[in-house]
Amino acid sequence: MLPLVVSFVSLFAASASAQASAASTAACQAILQALGSTKVQSSGAMYDNTADTYWSFFNTVDLPTCIVYPSSASDVQVAMTQIFDAGSDYAVRAGAHSPMIGWNSINDGVLISFEEMTAVSYSSTTDTITLQPGTTAGGVEEAVESFGVSAIWGRANVIGSGLLLGGGISFEGPLYGWASDRIKEMDVVLVTGQLVTASATNEYADLFLALKGGANRFGIVTRYELYAAHTGTKDDKLWYGGLVVYPASSTTALLTAISHYVRDATDPNAGGIMLVSASDTTSATAHACYFFYKGTTLPTSIFGELLSVPSTSQTFSTYSFYDITFLITGDDGPNGQQFGATAFVGDESGAAFLNGYNNLVNFTQTFSEQLIGSFFTVSPIPLSQWAASLSGENAIGNPGVNYGAIDFNLVFPDNESTRPAALNDAFELLLSQNPPSPGLPLYMNECHESQEVLASYPNYALLQAAYAKYDPTGFNVAHTKGPKGL
Ligand SMILES: Cc1cc2nc3c(=O)[nH]c(=O)nc-3n(C[C@H](O)[C@H](O)[C@H](O)COP(=O)(O)OP(=O)(O)OC[C@H]3O[C@@H](n4cnc5c(N)ncnc54)[C@H](O)[C@@H]3O)c2cc1C
Ligand SMILES: *[C@@H]1O[C@H](CO)[C@@H](O)[C@H](O)[C@H]1NC(C)=O
Ligand SMILES: *[C@@H]1O[C@H](CO)[C@@H](O)[C@H](O)[C@H]1NC(C)=O
Predict the structure, then answer these.
(1) pLDDT confidence of 15, banded at 50, 70, 90?
(2) Of the candidates 143, 127, 204, 146, the residue with the CA atom closest to the CA atom of residue 392
(3) Is any atom of ligand 3 closer than 6 Å to the C-beta of 362?
(4) Dist. CA 37–CA 212, nearest whole Å
(5) What would the pLDDT profile of 373-405 be if each residue is shown by its tens digit?
C-alpha cells in the first residue's frame, strides 16, 4: 500500500506546483516583455545573488520563477498588474531581514526585489526624509546625518524598510514613537496595480493606518516620506549608555529586574534591549543588555536595579544617534533564524518573564543538537511610545499599559536549510505555553509564521475592514505568505 500512497501524494504535489509555475511563467513573460531583461531575470549572477542573500538561511532555499528589479513605482505597477492578471504567487523583499519562511522569498512565483531603489533625501522645507524601499537604517542615517536629523528605525543598521510596515522598535522609540508612526505619506501599489498616495488625513487614511503594522498584506509601498527626528549630527553625543554583560548566575535577578523596568520605566529618554541567553546557562558572559539615556548618565532612579544585578562588565560612554545606529550590525553567517513573539506586562514577581525564559531553556535543551543559540529578548514598550505618534493611530492599537515585547529567537547551525518538524511542533507548544498578557498585541516583526498576530491587535477590526476594501478578492492572502487573519 505504501508506495501507492506516496506516488499519489507526489503526483498531486507535482500538479499543484505545475499550476503555480504556469501562472508565474506567464506573469514573468509579460513583465519581461514590458520591462526588459535588465529588470526581469530568471537566472544569472544577479538573480543568484538575490536568491542566495537572506538573513535567515532558510529563505535561500526558494527559487523564484523570475526576480523583478523595479527602478520606479510604475515598474512595480506593471509587475503587480501582470501578477494579478496571471493569478501568480509573489513576494516582496526590501532588506531581506525577516526570518518568517516565505514572507520575503518565493518558490515558483514572482519576487519583487527593491535593491535598485535605494534613494534617500531630506527636505528642510518640509522637514521630512523621503526614501525608496531598498534602503536600510544605515543607508538612511549616512544620507541625512549631516543635516542633524535621522529616521527612527530599529536597532541594527542592516535592517531594511520592511521594518516600517511592522511597527519598528528602536532605542529611541520611547521618545520618538514607533517607526511607522513617523510616516507622513506612502505611495502604495494596490493588488490591481493601481498607485495611490496614502496619509493620515486623505481619502486613504484607512489604508495608511493598516499599512502601519499590517506588514505585507495591504499593498506594495514604493515611497515613504518620514517626519525627521532632530537627533543631531554624528558629532552630537546626546546619549549616554552602552553594553552590560551578565553572568548566567544572575539570570533570575536579571529577569526580575527586567520585569520591574518594563513596568516602571516611563521616562521617554530611556531605552534598552535585553538579550537573555537560553542556550548559554553556565558562562560568565551569558546575557547582553544595551541601555541608553538621552542625557549624560544612566539615571539610578530608572536603571538602578538593572545595574545592581551582578554583572561581568559595564561598558558605557557618550553616543550620537549615528553611533547608536551602527553599534549593532546584526549580520551573521549562513544561519537559519527563527523568531516567536509574546508580550508581558511587568509585575513585582517577574513570574511571566521567568516562566517564559525557563520554557525556552527546556526547549533549547531538548533540541541542543539542532540549535547553536537561543535568546529570550525583551524590548520594553512604554506608553510614551504611542503618545509620540506624529501620524495618528497605527494598525496595532495602543493597549493602554507599559509592556515588554518578547522574542524567542533561535539560531540554527551553519548551512542547515530546513527546520525539523518535531522542533516546529515543540516551538508552537512553547508559544502556547506563553500567551501574551491579556489585551497585549504580538509584535509583527518578531513573530513566528504560525501566530495570529493581526488578531492580537486592539485595532484588528479596522484592519479587517481595510483589507476587505482594498483587496476585495483576497488576492494577496491567496498568493503571498504573510501574517494570518485576513
Ligand atoms: C539582526 C536583526 C535585528 C533586528 N532588530 C530589530 C529592532 O531593533 N527593531 C525592530 O522593530 N525590528 C527588528 N528586527 C526585525 C525587523 O524589523 C524585521 O525583520 C523587518 O521586517 C525587516 O525588514 P527588511 O526590509 O530588512 O526585511 P524583508 O524581509 O525584506 O521585509 C520584511 C517584510 O516586509 C515586506 N515588505 C518589505 N518591503 C515592502 C514594501 N515596500 N511593500 C510591501 N511589503 C514590503 C516583505 O514582504 C516582508 O514580509 C530585527 C531583525 C534582525 C534580523
Ligand atoms: C557553509 O557553506 C559555505 C559555502 O558553501 C562553506 O564555505 C562553509 O564552509 C560551510 N560551513 C559549514 C560549517 O559547513
Ligand atoms: C520541555 O520541552 C519538551 C519538548 O518541547 C516538552 O515536551 C515538555 O513538555 C517541556 N517541559 C516543560 C516543563 O515545559
Answers:
(1) low
(2) 204
(3) yes
(4) 34
(5) 999 999 999 999 999 999 999 999 999 999 999
* Percentage, residues of the chain above pLDDT 90: 94
End-to-end Cα spacing for the chain:
40
* pLDDT value at residue 17: 65
The label of the residue with cell 523596568 reads: 261
pTM: 0.96
Q: How far apart are CA 369 and CA 366, in angstroms?
A: 8
In this structure, which amino acid lies at residue 241?
G
Q: Is 263 helix (H, G, I), strand (E, B) or coil?
A: helix
- Rounded Cα distance, 311 and 358, in Å: 20
Q: How many CB atoms lie within 10 A of CB 398?
A: 16
3-class SS of residue 57 = helix
Residue nearest to atom 7 of ligand 3 (CA): 426
* 480 alpha carbon – ligand 3 mean position (Å): 33
Number of H helices, E strands in the chain: 14, 17
Query: What is the amino acid identity at position 114?
Result: F
Give the β-pairing of 120-123 and 110-113: unpaired
What are the Cα distances from residue 65, in Å, to 6, 101, 166, 359? 27, 17, 27, 41
If phi > 0 it is left, if psi is from -120 to 50 it is alpha, else beta; for residue 295 that is left
46 CB less than 6 Å from ligand 3? no
Tell me the three state secondary structure of residue 101.
coil
pLDDT attached to residue 155: 97
CA of 284 to the centre of ligand 1 (A): 32
Tell which atom from ligand 2 comes closest to the C-alpha of 333: 1
